[in-house]
Amino acid sequence: MKAVLYEKFQQPPKVVTLPDPTPEADGVVIKVEATGVCRSDWHGWMGHDSDIALPHVPGHELAGVVQAVGRDVRNWRVGDRVTVPFICGCGACPECHAGQQQVCLHQEQPGFTHWGSFAEYVGIHRADLNLVALPESIDFATAASLGCRFATAFRAVVDQGKVSAGQWVAVHGCGGVGLSAVMIASAVGANVVAIDIDDAKLALARELGAAHTINGASGTDVPEAVIALSGGGAHVSLDALGHPTTCFNSIVNLRPRGKHVQVGLMLGEHTAPPVPMARIIGKELEILGSHGMQAHRYGAMLDMITAGRLAPSRLVGSRISLAQAPEALMGMDRFQSVGATVITTF
């Protein structure tokens, strides 16, 4: 198979030919029809993820067709259209037994713990637990954007933030996760304030339902602006970027007893950002993490998509070839297009 491979961190990846994968007894091999290029992949390539063993094939946002099935798999057949969460559960630990595969104690992540989807084929383990059936009405490029960005935002807004109609929600960072969160929070009836430093992304946030936008590069005091617009502060605020500044602002712009949801990864030099603990205590704020979404929760999100209440297809940006993937991966720290970049040609 053709695949993108890097042999050293921070060295240019190459498109090479590798052996096709074979399914494990409980797994499947998926013919990849589309796979997203995500900032998490860039962090992996930079050497920020201890799970990656070199040489490595990145890629964790994928959709495709089942190509081969392990002997113990019961629920899937060759030809099934599928996608997969970027966190795959083991099925045996206490968290998996509680239905919380997104924090599985022995989790696996294609593109991190084993070779991923920047390839013609990818192996997925424990298929009966981790695969998600893809409705015919959802195209592969759109489905590839669900696994990390859109599903992560759905759980952050709906399950962790428990956002309800009429609440004020601040979204800090309008990349793939942030724009997804804007759309989802708006769909459940919230008043959304979107914050970014890129006017094009803020314009798209308004199209997706944001009631207000703030350009953080304009010298505006972001927390003060959110508090003023919302009449006292956000009920729920998400840091969808993963930066000390956006994390701090997201906490400070909350009203009393508000919820901060940290979605953007804090890696490298940003692993331990400062937080305003006196404010957290004095205002009884909740600080929550959100890490992906379980396969069994995809149904609610997919139902909203097929009903037309959510339109993740609007968040698909550039469609590129596998040959263009190395350059797109290396450039994730310098420039991210409006919408998700998706590999659709192999």
UniProtKB/TrEMBL annotation:
SMART domains: PKS_ER (SM00829). Its cofactor is Zn(2+). InterPro entries: ADH-like_C, ADH-like_N, ADH_Zn_CS, ER, GroES-like_sf, NAD(P)-bd_dom_sf, Zn_alcohol_dh. Residues 10-343 form the Enoyl reductase (ER) domain. Keywords: Metal-binding, Oxidoreductase, Zinc. The keyword Chloroplast does not apply. Pfam families: ADH_N, ADH_zinc_N. The keyword Oxidoreductase applies. PANTHER family: ALCOHOL DEHYDROGENASE-RELATED, L-THREONINE 3-DEHYDROGENASE. Belongs to the zinc-containing alcohol dehydrogenase family. This is Zinc-dependent alcohol dehydrogenase family protein.
